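so i finally got all the pieces together for this one. its two components total, 483 residues if u count the protein bits. some of the lines might not be protein, just check the labels. i wanna see the whole assembly predicted at once instead of chain by chain like last time, that was a mess tbh
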Amino acid sequence: MITNKCKTIRQELEEADAGHEPGDNLAVHLRGCSDCRAFASEQSALLGLIGTLEPVVAPSDFDFRLRARLARERSREQNGAGLRSFLRISRPVAAAALVLLVAVVGVVVKNRLTVTPSHTTVAPAATVMVPGATLGGVSIATTSDHEVGNTGGVGTTAGPKHTVAVIGSRDVAGQNNRGQRVDPALGRRGPGTVTREFGLTPASIVVSETDYSGPVVRVPLDPRALQISIDDGRGETRTISLPRVSFGSQRLVATQSFMPTVSTTKGVW
Amino acid sequence: MDTLSSIDDLSLGAVALTPDVAVGSASDHALLEAIRAGNEDAFTELVARYRNPITSYIYRMTSDYDGAVDLAQETFVRVYRAADRYQTNYAFSTYIYRIATNLAISELRKRKRRKLVSLTGFFQSSDGGEPREFQPSDGQPLQDVVLIDTERRAAVQRAIGTLPDKYRAPLILRDVEGKSYDEISHILGTSEGTVKSRISRARGFLRDKMRAYL
């Protein structure tokens, strides 16, 4: 049975140097404890066995190989130093080249994206005889390049002339400027078909050059025109009534008559 | 009163070497100081003092002689390159054994990753236990005492080689190299209590593996 005393004795045996003579206390315990005596015997035999391991000797050319290895290391370090000095010299040159490259790329990109004023053609100075539409606003954003003529619609009074300048608009019928993209599919339909990519360029802005001080004529809306009849294809007709919504302007069409933005779709679908 | 040329003149009684002084009688620290000053003979002397112990130690750790020689040379290369940064807080032997230990353990881990198949692995038991000894097929008992001793030493080396790394290094340093517990704790960077515990466990493993020889 291993007691605490045995543990202490065995720890002392473990930590003792090989060939260490046991003290009196240890010797007395070993004489009376067979387990610890067996442990001490095994311990001694094990250390003796490990002690039979002969030291290994380095080969005779150890120094020579070590010198060669050190020389190789030095050579590698010198090559590395040469590379570092080259990088140190060439670093400012590389930085300058990089700055130059960035500047050139910047200029090219800017030229591609910027619309020069010389390419901007002012749309035909539209003389708008406003047929009562609320034109109190000074600026009108438009995406239409239709020539706006004198409407003279029903119930309207010819208003004062407004000279409208279109800024940033391009001559649609003319050359295709930057920012405009001809849709290949549409281009095949006709030579004059042009689409404009407003994701690239902003919409044209129409600015009124003169303040409008005339009377404001409100256009009456026909409530019947806000009803849409739809044929569902099975012989039934459905009528949809739309609430009146006014955004402050009405659609002007080239027929010189004012028409609300309603059209019947019956028979078309 | 003599003036001190460097702070290292105060440390551990190191004697600064001059080209006239024989390097053979200088301490390890003095040799390191001379190596810093570019004395190649000092490095040669340092290599001569430690090449066999370091090679032997690494061989006991790795059980591969050629690899042990290679790692021993790498140890000296690192000592040479780091001579400027060497601090004389501990004995030089502690320093160089620490480098050797790190290299040996690193090599053992690389081997584990590579899962090298060794020739002796064919004779190991499938459960990863004690390697079986290769016995010639004639079954004749070995009569020659020299052969028996050789085989016993080989069995001890194999048994040590099966120990986990953390037990192997302190056991070799203690029972093969004869280092003190204090020195081992500095070499391994652990406490003295941990070193004693690991050595005790390692001996227990070895006792079980070598019981037939005890």
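Residues 63-114 of chain A form one domain.
The longest strand of chain A covers residues 161-167.
anyway lmk what u think
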